[in-house]
Amino acid sequence: MDINVLSILKKNQLSVTDGRKIILELFLKSPGALAHSDIEKETGASFDRVTVYRTLQTFVEKGIIHHIPTTDNSILYALCKQDCEAGHHHDNHVHFVCNECNKTICLDDVTVPDVKLPKGFKPDHSEMVVSGVCHDCR
Amino acid sequence: MDINVLSILKKNQLSVTDGRKIILELFLKSPGALAHSDIEKETGASFDRVTVYRTLQTFVEKGIIHHIPTTDNSILYALCKQDCEAGHHHDNHVHFVCNECNKTICLDDVTVPDVKLPKGFKPDHSEMVVSGVCHDCR
DNA sequence: GTAACTGCAAAATATTTGCATCCTT
DNA sequence: AAGGATGCAAATATTTTGCAGTTAC
């Protein structure tokens, strides 16, 4: 098991349970974003659906994972890389959705550009999603 | 009633029904995006929830409205301005979500900037959502 | 030992589907 | 008149909540 799993949980003052270990490891292994259903599928229903809901919620609250905006009504989560702390997400990178394999990938090295807003609008946070064909599918 | 309602429906070869007229008019009047629940609320449940689902789906298929990406799990729809046609959305503008009034507004004049993607990624379409405080809430 | 986490059951919501009826063209 | 749209009922799917039992520390 990835040693990071333990340190991440410890750092966030979460007790180390099987469910959390397995789900967190899944995120660490996954190149892209995961939906609730992906997690149920990957873990082979080894625990209750409710536990998955609660674990994801806990991880989001602690800033371990974050929601990813999507254009197709689905709810995706991905690891917060870098220095995310509870309440302060710095996941200011572009997300890429592949139209072929349908995966969502965090482009950690591509930061969201600033845009000039109309008068009176005060920006706080930006999200950007690019769709197209990914590295593996061409 | 806004004369556009009829022309938009006609242009998309949709029969003109009360539900479609009222829902489309709601979008035309609204400065921002609407969720399914907003529509039910605004129309005072004058028609079946199922009809709202089907109408929204039809509008999306025809390219009259489009999904807006959100970070908070909600599903929002907004009018496609400009030259949207079925299957070819040109709604390449930035969306703004206000943290105060919670409204989502289409910034039709702010276009989504291009970003440089890692090698191997071929972009097709971009979405951008900026959150902050809107014109009315400061 | 205690607080926190999980599983189960069940409630509350949300979404989809089939079909008979009604409306638009 | 014919095809499409709606309403209703019901089937599915999704998410939330309460509580008792279990586990981590």
Q: Helix and strand layout, with pairings?
A:
2 copies of one chain form a homodimer.
Chain A: H1 3-11, H2 18-29, E1 34-35, H3 36-42, H4 49-62, E2 65-68, E3 76-79, E4 93-98, E5 104-111, E6 122-133
Parallel strand pairs in A: 4-6
Antiparallel strand pairs in A: 1-3, 2-3, 4-5
Chain A binds a DNA duplex (25 and 25 nucleotides) through helix 2 and helix 4.
What can you tell me about this protein's structure?
- The structure is a homodimer of 138-residue chains.
- Chain A has 138 residues and is of the alpha+beta class.
- A 3-stranded antiparallel sheet of chain A has the order 1-3-2. A 3-stranded mixed sheet of chain A has the order 5-4-6, with no helix packed on it.
- Chain A has a single domain, classed as Winged helix-like DNA-binding domain superfamily/Winged helix DNA-binding domain (Arc Repressor Mutant, subunit A, Orthogonal Bundle).
- About 5% of the residues of chain A have low confidence.
- Chain A has 4 helices and 6 strands.
- In chain A, a hairpin with a 7-residue loop joins strand 2 and strand 3.
- In chain A, 30% of the residues lie in helices and 26% in strands.
- The interface between A and B is large, with 39 and 38 residues.
- The first copy, chain A, binds a DNA duplex (25 and 25 nucleotides) through helix 2 and helix 4.
